[in-house]
Amino acid sequence: MVKEDSILASIRGILRDIYNKCILGYNYFVRIYLVLDIELWGILEGLAIAIDRGFHRVFILSGSQEAVQVTQWSDSKVSMSTLVKRINILLANLAHWSILHVSKDLIIERLIV
Fold this sequence. Notes:
The protein is 41% helix and 28% strand.
C-alpha cells in the first residue's frame, strides 16, 4: 500500500501465513516521487523480509497493475531498472512465487483483518 504526500511516501505491507494469520507488518518512509517506484520498493522490501524469515513460497498481492506487469515480464524499459532486477534476483531464490493485482480496497481490508 502506498500513501503519498508532498515529501515522503509510506511503504507498508503485511506478511501472512497460509492460514491468513499475520506474521508481521512493516512500514517504511521513502523519498520517491513515482508511484510505480514506490510500489516496486514495497514488493522488494516484503520479499527481502520474507526471505530473511526463511520463506520459500510467496504470494504477492499488489494494488498496482503496472508493478505486477513489470515484475512478471522482462520486455519493458521499466523492467530493466535496477529495482526490478533486484526484485527478480530475490524471486529467483524462491521455490515458488506468484504475484496478483487486486483492488486497493481488498488490500486495505487485508491489512486491517
